[in-house]
Amino acid sequence: MFRTVIAGIAFVAILAGVVAGYRLGAGAWPALSDGRALKTASGTDAKSTSPAAARTVLYWKHPGGEADFSPEPKKSPDGRDYVPVYDDQEAEFKDSKSQPAAKAANDKGGNRKILYYRNPMGLADTSPVPKKDWMGMDYIPVYEGEDEPGTVTVSLDKVQRSGVRTAPVERRSLVQTVRAPGIAKPDERSLRVVSLRADGFVEKLYVNETGKHVKAGDKLFRVYSPQIVTAQIDYRTSTIPGGGLRSESGALQKLRNLDVPEAVIEALRKDPSPQMSIDWPSPTTGVVMQKRVIEGQMAKAGEELYRIGDLTTIWVIADIAEQDLDLVRVGAPATVAFRAYPGRTFEGRVTFVLHELDISTRTAKVRIEVHNPDHIIKHEMYADVEISARAGEAARLVVPTFAVIDSGNRQVVIVAKGGGRFQPRAVKLGMRGGDHVEILEGVTEGEDVVTSANFLIDAESNLKAALQSFTQPAAAESKP
Fold first, then answer.
1. Is residue 127 in some structural domain?
2. pLDDT per residue over 104-161, tens digit each?
3. Same domain, 181 and 316
4. Are 240 and 272 part of one and the same domain?
5. 71 lies in some domain
6. DSSP assignment, residue 32?
7. How many alpha carbons fall within 13 Å on the CB side of residue 414?
8. pLDDT tens across 306-358, in order?
9. Residue 60 — φ and ψ, nearest 5°?
């Protein structure tokens, strides 16, 4: 008896399963987790015969569940098809599609709160109070819970999985980098030529090599000059009592006109005997860049014997292209890298821009001063120069360059409005600097723009529709 009851219950259960299966077959079979439809008893795709077959594919996801998504069908590296994700599988997307009906219901109730008023022509201009535009058209109220035209809602889960990143629209100083080749030169202001103002004979050289570093006052050579000896005798004669003040001052001026060292003049005041040979001192501190005197030779008046330069500061002469010349200003900071010292840079500053161009290369010479305390920078070294143009100018409204979607004839940024809502905005670009670009029109300071994973937002069918409506004439929005 007990077995008979159990058998009856099993039979009823099987019959109920058959009836349920038959009804499911007549309707829509549920989709599998990977997006494939169950088959009917006849072997046909139940989805193809169901009203639910009109579902919209939002995007395709990796068949293995990895965080990898695509706006269009494709295959994984191992040959498996990406799985489609439909609109009814994204709860927030379904909710966003039902928002217009809810808004209409609220409109009838008349209990919605007005957040602000937007421009009737679709411009990026809002007002907290009612107003009219320049054509007399009323600004359109935007209610609480209502998205602006062109706004797209994307699932927050999808936003997180795709790694959407945003950055604020902010004001900052843009610095452009002007790059140019250059050559190291000695600081012309530090160059000194050592020569005699009277003929003489070089009896001994104390500095007998090019490149030697000397200090001011160091002995360079010993010279005998009959004219300088005569000037010393005249000075001593003028100091004899009765010689007269004018003759003494005249004799002293003659010695100075011959550039006789002050040490020799002071010695004459103490000792009446003239110095037949004089040790000539260096007039400055620096490096002997040229030596044109040989021990024992006769040096004529005005003949260059040494050329000494101070290499503590050197010049780098850069060739700036004609189109970049307007960006370079005197005082702009510069970074110089010499090919002789890879990986090392030197800081400098622009001190002069030549007033003419090289007719053959269409470049201008720009002078950059660089400190060289260790004297490791040699003149005529090749250098790579980077000048920070427009440094110190007023801050500009900028966004990261990655935020701009450039189609060639127009530029768009996607503004993140929070809660998974995004809005495309046409913008007008200004100057570029580093990884930022100036925005002249289209966004305001403090708004957030999308800088990564733009492809996912662009894959939404709603966004495509928004972009299409966004490109329509703005006057169409003002029609009732």
1. no
2. 444 444 566 787 787 776 565 778 888 888 778 888 887 765 555 567 666 666 677 7
3. yes
4. yes
5. no
6. P
7. 29
8. 999 999 999 999 999 999 988 898 999 999 999 889 999 999 999 999 989 99
9. -115, 140
Residue in the block written with tokens 């723009």 = 449
Rounded to an integer, what distance in angstroms lies between the CA atom of residue 303 and that of residue 283? 16
What is the C-alpha to C-alpha distance for residues 207 and 198, in angstroms, rounded to an integer? 21
User: Is the sign of the CA dihedral 48, 53, 59, 63 positive or negative?
Assistant: negative
CB 37 within 8 A of CB 47: yes
CATH number reported for the structural domain that contains residue 167 in this entry: 2.40.420.20
Find the domain containing 166 and state its range. Answer: 152-173+394-478
Is there a single domain that holds both residue 235 and residue 261? Answer: yes
Q: Is 283 found in the same domain as 220? A: yes
Question: Of 416, 380, 187, whose CA–CA distance to 286 is shortest?
Answer: 187
Q: Is pTM beyond 0.70 here?
A: no
Structure tokens at 271: 């000792």
Q: Report angle CA 91, 147, 405 to the nearest 5 degrees.
A: 90
Beta strands in 82-206, from DSSP E residues, in sequence order: 83-86, 114-118, 126-127, 140-143, 152-153, 165-168, 170-172, 176-186, 192-195, 200-205
Nearest to 232 by CA among 255, 202, 208, 203: 255
Task: List CB contacts of 165: < 8 A, sequence separation 6 or more.
Answer: 450, 451, 452, 453
What's the CA gap between 131 and 170, in Å, rounded?
28
